[in-house]
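WARN retry 2 of 3 for item q-0093 after timeout on previous attempt; input resubmitted unchanged.
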Amino acid sequence: MMSRWMPSRQSPPPAAAVQGPPAPSGPNGFWLVDPSFRDRLASATLALLDLVGDALNDDIPLAEALDDAHDHVEYMLGVPSLYGVLVQAEAAAQIVQAAGLEAGSPFGLAIAQGLAGIGQLPFDQQQQFVRAASRRYAITAPSRSAASAPPASSHPGTAC
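OK item q-0093 returned
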C-alpha cells in the first residue's frame, strides 16, 4: 500500500498561459496615407514627450529617457513597436526645436548633436525644453479633425 505522504508520479496540470494585451494594430495600408494611424503616431509622440519629461524628474538622462520610452511604445503608446522609431524621432526633433536649435532630418546629425548639447544642461533646464516641446506639439501636431475639416470657402466679392 502506498503511503499518502509519498509524492505522486502524476505531473501537475499545466499552468494556464498568461497573455498580455493584444498588440496594437498597424496602419491600414501605407502608414503615411492612413489618417487615423497618423493621429495615433501624433498621440504617441505627445505621450512620449510627457514620459520623457517625467523621467527627467528621476534624473534619467535625456537620451536614455527617449530610448527607454521607445522600448514601451507598443503597449504604453498604442502603436506597433515597428513604428516606435518614428515616434522617437519626432519627439527628439521637437525637443531640439524647442531648445531653439535646428533639427534637420531625422537621419542627419543635427538632432543627435542637439540632444547631446541639451543632455549637458541641468535636468530642470532639459525638462523645460521637453515641456515646451510637448506644449508646442499639442498645438501644432497634425490631426485628422483639422485635416478632415472642409476648407474655408472664399466667395468672390467679399473682403478678407
